[in-house]
Amino acid sequence: MARAGLPENGEVAPDPRPAPPDLEVLRRFVNSDNRFYGVDHLRGEDRGRWFPEVVGLPVDDIDDAGWRRLAVLRDRVRAVVADEDDAMAALAETAQRYPLVLGPSGLASARDDQESAMATTVLVALHAAIQDGRLARLRLCQRPDCQWCYYDTSKNGSARWCSSDPCGDVMKARAYRSRQRAAG
Predict the structure, then answer these.
(1) Where do transmembrane segments lie in this chain (predicted)?
(2) Which CATH class is domain 21-183?
(3) What is the pTM of this model?
């Protein structure tokens, strides 16, 4: 498997299309809902281990209600990455729970709790991606049973799959078989 997943040994495979360091937290937050393997790290038992490793923030004081709110935030951010209709309005409504202040080092959380710190980190990364146009390079794999979030580094910005193996190969084979059925 070419992308991050859940191999039997529990180790996560290297991701072939990471984002630039300042956007990687955003991409990985979206991928906390690993649809290919059917694992939601915001709702799973590994969230206390997975998030400090991935996001670099402590999470031991986030309660179940906080994790549910973060899952809603994640799903709204995913909708923005997918460029769904009204996604920005839905995200703005959810983001009101996490007010930001402008401090000496830039935008920061107005609250001093771990849930707000995680949400702020994600929202600041999303804001930066929108402002400098890099959000257009953050994509969801077009394989319906995958939808892994990846950063498109192709010259013309036309990558459609998180990796060629297996997603690109599977989708090309499906398209070929569809054309063969239509022709014959």
Answers:
(1) none
(2) mainly alpha
(3) 0.83
